[in-house]
């Protein structure tokens, strides 16, 4: 009895496999991703997991990163040139070889459609990612400039920290700057997390800039987290080292309260869908821009009143200036290579940080080396 049951089960299992293999198919692309320069051509393979019993016609379609199909006849911004229909002969398991030409910079996803009633179970989920840039060398430069700005801005936090540690004093280091710096990088970290990790924010971004890359890269995320940690450690030095009667101003305290109220309002607007969460994160990132402008001003005024830059690290300024230059350079390179302003206006906080850093750093360098040069010899960092 048991042997009969097993025999029936094996028969049904084998029959089910045969039916499934005859009636359903899976498509594959080789390679699954292609990186090209404008004007280049590549060959990709498209095939099925087993042979078709009859002549079958297929068509490659293009989709943007927001999941919308691109109709080539109506598109003025096709990333790859028109792709002809292709077919697979009956009883032929060999893949089709498709030529694609890079027409314009951007990124698209290739999928297939069938003109027959062929059941392809993964037709909507299997795709080939095609990335096109204007110039490969420019692409390498934008990667290098990104890590250079990351390195310069990351190291820039340490001269002030080490100077305070060496002097066992925070006299000359403005407390408003220290506190606002922590708050600013907290908001910058939140903004970077949103664009780099949250799918909903990314979907809304690509809906606005379908052919652009994300303006927030891995080095942006790592930098903001590191900046938050080291700026917090520097601010904590205020509690342990000589302060010389300095304190956080009432204006700074009031500003912190206003920022808190602003944050609550923006979160409510995003929660009730008055604004998109992408817009909400943009609005929150403006806190970092505002703080970057405000936080430098007390330090510049303090240097002016004291007629001295002692206690304020020039090493921090040099590295901060370098980071600002490399950050803006990366954004310009991305915009050029992708022919899209999304690389610039898509991240206003990053652009604003670079401009503000360069502007204030020039002012601090003038104070240190030109206006109050004789009083700056005590700064070793």
UniProtKB/TrEMBL annotation:
The chain crosses the membrane at residues 137-158, 178-201, 221-242, 254-274, 310-336, 351-372. One of its GO terms (molecular function) is symporter activity. Keywords: Lysosome, Membrane, Repeat, Signal, Symport, Transmembrane, Transmembrane helix, Transport. One of its GO terms (cellular component) is lysosomal membrane. Residues 1-21 form the signal peptide. Belongs to the cystinosin family. This is Cystinosin.
